[in-house]
């Protein structure tokens, strides 16, 4: 009779220490402020700020992020825009920005699922109170966390969020992630 050896998941002290150093470093980064205004055309919802965005104090500020080049070519704006223009977007184009999770990290996978889900009621309240016409989730993964179910389609979703004033609702839209770390969509697909 053979005995089964029960394996336990163990992490070497080197990697445990390395992860702790990364987390300590990330704790020193500040979140990126929401850029909100009432009655926006589109509120872009990111999963969380990257470290470069935190350092620069602007949304989607990483050099490999395709957000700003895609926005510039989308038809939502009439000129080339960069992360340095994010504060002007509500007044110039009625576009705003927020994140599901405020804590910056190197990559979204550094956040726990529960940490990300804690932001759902806060996001719902922002959307309900600020009344954007569309809340655009920048990535399928963030929408799957938000809706708590797997979605295979991009674009307009069936779900909507009622406004706190009872006079309308926000449509939910899902686009591919613009992160340079996401390689399943090339820039032309992200632009669509």
From TrEMBL:
Keyword annotations of the record: Activator, Chromatin regulator, DNA damage, DNA repair, Hydrolase, Isopeptide bond, Nucleus, Transcription, Transcription regulation, Ubl conjugation
Residues that span the membrane, as ranges: none
Recorded GO MF terms: DNA binding; G/T mismatch-specific thymine-DNA glycosylase activity; SUMO binding; uracil DNA N-glycosylase activity
GO (cellular component) term, any one: nucleoplasm
Domain Uracil-DNA glycosylase-like: from-to ranges: 37-186
GO BP term (any one): base-excision repair, AP site formation
EC number: 3.2.2.29
Compartments, as annotated in UniProt: Nucleus
Domain of life: Eukaryota
Enzyme kind, highest EC tier: hydrolase
Pfam family, one: UDG
Reaction it catalyzes: Hydrolyzes mismatched double-stranded DNA and polynucleotides, releasing free thymine
Annotated family: Belongs to the uracil-DNA glycosylase (UDG) superfamily. TDG/mug family.
Subunit structure: Homodimer. Interacts with AICDA and GADD45A.
Name listed for the protein in its UniProt record: G/T mismatch-specific thymine DNA glycosylase
Source organism: Choanephora cucurbitarum
